[in-house]
Amino acid sequence: MSQPLDRYRKQVLFAGLREEGQQRLAASRVVVCGCGALGTVVAEAHVRAGVGHVRIVDRDFVELSNLQRQVLFDEDDVRARTPKAMAAAEKLRRVNSEIQIEPVVADIDAGNVRSLVEGADLILDGTDNFEVRFLLNDVSLETGIPWIYAGVIGSHGQTMPVFPGRTACLRCLIESPPEAGSMETCDTAGVIGPAVNVVASLEAAIALKILSGHADEVSPELTIVDVWSMSFRSMSVRDLRAKSACPACHQGERTWLRGERGSQSIVLCGRNAVQVSPSEKGKVSLDELADRWRASGTVQKNAWLARLSLRGPDLEITVFRDGRAIIQGTEDLAMARGLYARYVGS
User: Fold this and answer.
1) What is the CATH number of the domain that holds 98?
2) Catalytic: 186?
3) 159 contacts 199 by C-beta, under 8 angstroms
4) Which of 186, 246, 249, 269 is catalytic?
5) What's the domain range around 312?
6) Model-level pTM?
């Protein structure tokens, strides 16, 4: 892909890129998995840098509490209940019309992750949970596509590049997802925008280095920052893969990619909400669903989702076209599944 270089003139002047590096960026394809706090910053960085194809995958819609740290959204998106992937793509196309921006409204799972990363040169972590990260780790090892892990909570965060077969993977570093209740979450510790911006910028810098042809210069390190205490440290993972007994790296185990791990119902961090996914996803008629709901409460609908605000209990059910739902007003998985069965179907 050829792009006019005037837009990127200041970037091309940088010794680490030059014109050759910029052309490599233009020919590159990335997939941003999750378009919340980290994902919006990472997606914007790649679009502004001129990466030729940016696929943005997210399962959620924009809410008011997102605006504190998710830089691509505004109050109009909140009022319209716009899916995050669509809202982000709309903003980013106004930033750079010379590249391809592909929004995908979907929950990343074992059934679709291969197709979502197909053709990508790099997978970027913008997710908010370890189950998806372990799935991305599996698909990276299986396909050979490198990925960059990143996470933020409170005022601190971390990031680490993974080159399949060469460097430590996420399971070398963390054997399995943390037990429920064993770690802080954004619901208990909160999260501040500067921490998000710093970690996402580090992730984006690593990505640009890889995509521009300098992957061999990327250090195998876990970088940890805390913007409140102003601490910054890097932990080498150079020998971790060789020393670990990682079943994913050394035995080819793909537990998450085969769908053996991962829940169909999950509590969404900081949302007082549960996501419920049907065992088999299919296309839902939002018009028919909205018609059925009218006797049960207030209904809103757009091209991507239908939303029911129930009369009486402070509960809302948002259903996407693939049958996935977000039940707001509870963190009780059994209750959420019951509401799904009652108002959407088993």
Assistant:
1) 3.40.50.720
2) yes
3) yes
4) 186
5) 265-343
6) 0.85
